[in-house]
What we know:
The chain is mostly helical. Helix content is 46%, strand content 5%. It has helices at 20-25, 54-60, 62-67, 86-97, 108-120, 124-140, 142-152, 155-165, 183-187, 192-202, 209-215, 231-240, and strands at residues 28-29, 40-43, 48-52, 80-81.
Amino acid sequence: MASPLPTGVEATGKGTDPSPSELKSAPVLHHFYRDPTDDVLLESSDGILLRASSYRLSKASAMFAGMFDIEEPRNPGGAILLDFPANVIAEFRSLLVHPGPRAPRGDFWLLEGLRRLVSTYDCEELWDMVFVAYESACHREPFEYLVYASNSNDVPMARQVLRLAAYPTDCRINPNLASGQSFWQLVDRLRPSWRLALLKLLVPASANRKLALHLIGFDADSFDPKGCPYIDVWMVLELKFLPYGTDADA
């Protein structure tokens, strides 16, 4: 038997009409994962409900298997709240049905969320496949990876990202071409101390840019102020990157 939808999810014309505030905050059913024969509701962090099979969840995840048994899933309140956005849960839900024929797809942030989800819920059978897709996204979108490292304040991870950025690949997404943003606009997404550390290396306070770049070890001819630094610049950044307040041995 399908688990009931929380009040206000689908308008049926029955019962008391919800207030405007309740309508605004009420979760909505996912446009695709809404099969009423699926007996579990998963609620995303952005207020979307996705139906899923307790059998498939239990088979994929040791943690879900502990939450409910296959015959009668224990699902109080009608939905299990997962601290992940709907697009991540939808990709996870897709892998439950088709784990073998295809690898996970999506941008860096979707695959990073999927990596955390399968790790959090102990999905051993999906882990290798998801991690390979995530690792590929790190190579494909190194600047998004750098933003993630900044959000985590993880300097060793940042240096790993800068090392990746030093070796371009055919599938690399150039930050100044993505979403119409320049490299410098993307730098603004970093935490202030990280932004300062990068800009201190990239744009030193000197009237003579070539001399300034030379003094900190850059080849001035390999620096493109309209786009991204070239290979040798990334390699120098990896060695010298040290945001204020972090340990030099990090």
